[in-house]
Amino acid sequence: MIVITAPTGNIGSRLLSLLVEDAPAHGEEVRVVVRDPARLPESVRGRVEVVTGSHGDAATVERAFAGADAVFWLVPPDARRTPEEAYSGFSRPAVRAFAAHGVGRVVGVSALGRGTPQAGRAGLVTASLAMDDLIAGSGVAYRALANPSFFENLLEEADSIREHGVFTDTADPDRKAPMAAVADIAATAADLLLDRSWTGVGSVPVLGPQDLSPNDLARIMTEELGRPVRYVRQPLDELRSAMLGHGLHAEFVEAMVDMKRAKDEGLDSGVERSPGSRPATGFAQWCAQTLGPAVRTAPEAADAR
């Protein structure tokens, strides 16, 4: 039995789609933990066991992890809490349930940066790495998917790209860093969840095929979208003020700022790509398949669907 948490999210929905097709051939059943089962695609509802509730709730994970051989663990973002509460606090009931039910393997969504000089002052990444340590301490075999920033973060910039030809972030325009597509993260998770041979604790970096700077992204977007796109760097103080203005928890906001600063100082750099790793989605390919349609879709058309 493989249990998927957050099955309707960006990564979890893709993982669910893969596992409902591949798990039966491996003799595995699939169970999902979801707050609202109606959000599951109709095509998978009859093919998975459903536990309704939050995977941060002790009673829910007690039901969800009974008889489980492997668990996909993803903490949903929660800007209403402190980083410790949002990551380790949310995970503690699950960690107890892992041990109580003898769960063998856990694959968790985490971040790059372990072992770097920035790791201890990287805000949300520091909190995510502490969560990894908490899970690893439960005695399960654990693989942390060590992810960089996602290509999909740029979908939040689709309106600005369409209307102004601009996207923003806080990074140095010429700092190169890895990025990844969520589809590749889901595929890596599926491989690990279906493989019963691995043991112990470790991390698995999920990287795009090349490091890219914001200026590189702008150039590739210009080429793929057929319109000029430029990068505008946002000061960290401006980012902080904007998030606080939206009522987010002050400690969470500061952790986001610390993470952005650490990434700009090289938090995600220095990870070597493994020659034997699965093929990764390139940014140009992702632009053509995902960003392009989002940019070309006018808000009025999106509202009408």
Summarize the SSE layout with pairings.
Layout: E1 2-5, H1 10-22, E2 30-34, H2 42-45, E3 49-52, H3 58-65, E4 70-73, H4 83-101, E5 105-111, H5 124-136, E6 141-147, E7 149-150, H6 158-164, E8 166-169, E9 179-180, H7 182-193, E10 201-205, H8 214-225, E11 230-233, H9 236-245, H10 250-264, H11 283-296, H12 299-304
Parallel strand pairs: 1-2, 1-4, 2-3, 4-5, 5-6, 6-10, 7-9, 8-11
Helix pairs in contact: 1-7, 3-4, 4-5, 6-11, 8-11, 9-10
Structure description:
By secondary structure, this protein is an alpha/beta fold. It has a domain at 2-150 and 179-208 and 268-281: Rossmann fold. It has 12 helices and 11 strands. It has helices at residues 10-22, 42-45, 58-65, 83-101, 124-136, 158-164, 182-193, 214-225, 236-245, 250-264, 283-296, 299-304; strands spanning 2-5, 30-34, 49-52, 70-73, 105-111, 141-147, 149-150, 166-169, 179-180, 201-205, 230-233. The strands form 3 sheets. It has a 7-stranded parallel sheet with strand order 3-2-1-4-5-6-10, with helices on both faces. A two-stranded parallel ribbon has the order 7-9. It is globular.
